[in-house]
Write a structure and sequence with these properties.
Number of strands of chain A: 0
Order of helices and strands of chain A: HHHHHHHHHHHH
Order of helices and strands of chain B: EEEHEHEHHHEHEHEEHEEEHEH
Strand content of chain B: 25-35%
Low-confidence stretches of chain A: none
Number of helices of chain A: 12
Structural class of chain A: mainly alpha
Number of strands of chain B: 13
Helix content of chain B: 25-40%
Strand content of chain A: under 5%
Oligomer: heterodimer
Number of domains of chain A: 1
Largest interface: A-B, 27 and 35 residues
Strand order of the largest sheet of chain B: 5-6-7-3-8-9
Mean pLDDT of chain B: 85
Number of helices of chain B: 10
Shape of chain A: globular
Chain lengths: ~270, ~350
């Protein structure tokens, strides 16, 4: 039964995302421009980092290739999550104007419909930019590659995307209660990815603790990338923690899923 | 596409016992027993202070609708109409009472019920704005796993009866309001729902579109035996479609019966509007008609909805210089308002 619903959800997601892609293609020029824009906007982030390195040799002891490595990992993980479920931040608007109701009368899971809402391929611009920076970092960074480190790369990217997906999902669930909370959500999603572009060493310990134990964004790249690069983490954590990204992602998605269910239940009992 | 070979409905564990017998003499299709919906409304009374108040949107509603009935569900804004529809479709969970549609508890088995019902929200289109109309139908085809042959048959039928032939390849954003509404109705019916809920299906439509929509719904009910529940502000919708009217206000059922009974209960009146050649003192009309308004050469005469207009028109025409005239049907609001006055007075 549960698996059946999951399969139904993925299928519905595909159907709806497909419709959105076709809708976008009704305006091809606009699509091309926004994709390039998405790429350029995110690229500016990295230009800012390059500018910083034109003045200093290291940030918190991390060299440019190492920071680029962090940046690429964060960018790709976030980009994938943003591509897959980024539109969920619009849920508040749907709750406010009542169009969420039109999704609730369909025979497919609401979560799939909300996640696929306004699916935008232009977000590939961000993923592409992240991959380019990551590619550059991998060429120039000085790492003694081992099997474990190689294996960690895809695990880290997908697990990181999973953590960001959970943040998007939790933020959407919160909007059932507070419909105008999308800005708060943005602080954790877009704000989170910007934070992760810099080495943990440049931030205050309390912030690092929060990002490790409360909203575990540190597991997206700081901890696993620190292992790959052989960099010590500001907090005293055992070495194996670097490998726990997929577990943390699963736990976060589970918790966010519960929050989503609670949010939807509250919506269906209050209708607003 | 291999959709057609798959099962039509997703597997579900049955928790509500056997389904009711279908066909003539079947048990009630929609059943409400003391259904309640209470909302907590928080009102800002100061910078941080909030007042909590409970609002009973639906207050102990009980009624049954049999398979194949066409029911008009009317009442003033905020009376609890939409809340009832939202509970019937499973969007909202009732706070109390018992509610069943086709033997299913909508709030618990929303997706299972979704295969068996169609919903049209008059004000909110579910069609895909930037895509040709046909694309929205193709999505329904796959989302509801409608068998290919059935889909084609239903689509052809809707296209013919709702006259959508020339619209299928037009992006929805280019359709007129009436065309879009017809498109929306078709979209809600492709999966052969046993019951259709229509929320203001004729609002904002021109006369021609209204006629098409009503005719289509009538045929649908006659040929397929589809149960129809519609909310409307247009009394003509009810006159031409519904064998039964339910009036709701303050979350309670005020009237349940045929339309004629509603006119009696509300002592509703029609209005004869006459344009005279020049300004004249109020017309001395035969009882029970009376002048209710005068504006220059135009005068308004109210007379009982049950009476014929012909006698009154002949009388006025014989005695006054008549230029033009029209008869206005009572609107639902005024019928209901009259009904309340009656009750308050009794």
């Amino acid at each position: 039964m549960r698996r059946g619903r999951a399969v139904e959800g993925v299928r519905a997601y595909g159907l709806i995302a497909g419709m959105w892609i076709r809708s976008t293609m009704a305006y091809r020029t606009s699509f091309a421009l926004t994709t390039v824009g998405n790429f350029a906007m995110t690229a500016l982030d990295f230009v800012a980092i390059l500018l910083m390195f034109s003045r200093v040799d290291a940030l918190g002891g991390w060299s440019l290739p190492e920071v680029a490595f962090l940046y690429g990992l964060s960018g790709v993980s976030f980009g994938l999550a943003d591509l897959a479920v980024g539109s969920m931040e619009r849920l508040g608007r749907r709750v406010r104007d009542g169009t969420l109701d039109t999704l609730l009368v369909r025979p497919v899971p609401v979560l799939a419909q909300v996640a696929a809402d306004r699916f935008a391929l232009r977000r590939l611009g961000r993923v592409t930019q992240g991959l380019l920076v990551l590619g550059y970092a991998l060429v120039v960074v000085d790492v003694d590659w081992t099997a474990a480190k190689l294996l960690l790369m895809p695990v880290m990217l997908l697990g990181g995307a999973g953590i960001f997906c959970a943040v998007f999902l939790a933020a959407a669930a919160f909007q059932f209660v507070a419909q105008d909370a999308s800005e708060v959500a943005n602080a954790f999603t877009y704000g989170g990815t910007t934070l992760l572009q810099y080495p943990p060493a440049v931030f205050a310990l309390d912030l690092v603790r929060g990002v490790t134990f409360v909203v575990p964004l540190a597991f997206v790249n700081w901890l696993p990338a620190g292992y790959v690069l052989g960099r010590p983490y500001p907090l005293d954590l055992p070495g194996w923690v670097a490998f726990t990204t997929p577990l943390v992602a699963a736990a976060c998605c589970g918790l966010a899923g519960l929050a989503w269910r609670a949010g939807l239940r509250s919506y269906r009992s209050t209708g607003s | 596409m291999t959709e057609s070979t798959r099962k039509q409905r997703p597997r579900t564990t049955r928790t509500t016992g056997p389904e009711p017998v279908t066909g003539a003499g079947a048990a009630a299709f929609i059943e409400l027993e003391g259904v309640e919906k209470v909302f907590d409304v928080r009102k800002k009374t100061g910078f941080l202070k909030r007042e909590r108040r409970q609002v009973r949107a639906v207050d102990g509603l009980s009624f049954t609708v049999s398979r194949g009935e066409v029911v008009g569900y009317i009442g003033p804004n905020g009376a609890g109409k939409s809340t009832t529809i939202k509970m019937l479709t499973g969007i909202l969970t009732p706070s109390g009472g018992r509610l069943r549609v086709a033997g299913i508890d909508p709030s618990r088995e929303r997706t299972r019920l979704a295969h068996r019902m169609g919903v049209v929200f008059g004000q909110r289109t579910t069609l895909w704005w930037d895509l040709p109309l046909i694309d929205s139908y193709r999505l329904m085809h796959r989302m509801y796993r409608i068998p290919d042959a059935r889909y084609r048959e239903n689509l052809d039928r809707c296209v013919e009866l709702l006259q959508l032939q020339d619209l299928l390849d037009v992006p929805v954003r280019q359709l007129s309001l009436g065309q879009r509404m017809r498109g929306d109705i078709a979209a809600a019916l492709l999966h052969d729902p046993e019951v259709v809920y229509l929320d203001e299906p004729t609002i904002g439509l021109d006369v021609v579109s209204k006629t098409k929509v009503r005719g289509f719904l009538r045929d649908l009910n006659a040929e397929r035996g589809t149960t129809v529940l519609l909310t409307t502000h247009d009394l003509q919708d009810i006159e031409q479609l519904c064998s039964r009217v339910m009036v709701i206000d303050h979350g309670r059922l005020m009237y349940d019966g045929p339309l004629e009974g509603l006119h009696e209960a509300g002592e509703s009146e029609r209005t004869l509007v006459v344009d005279l050649e020049r300004e004249l003192p109020p017309i001395e009309a035969p009882e029970p008609a009376r002048v209710v308004r005068v504006e220059g050469p135009r005068q308004w005469l109210a007379f009982p909805a049950s009476a014929s207009a012909a006698g009154l028109v002949a009388d006025v025409a014989a005695r006054y210089p008549l230029v033009d005239l029209s008869v206005r049907e009572p609107d639902i609001e005024s019928v209901i308002a009259k009904m309340y006055e009656e009750r308050a007075g009794a």
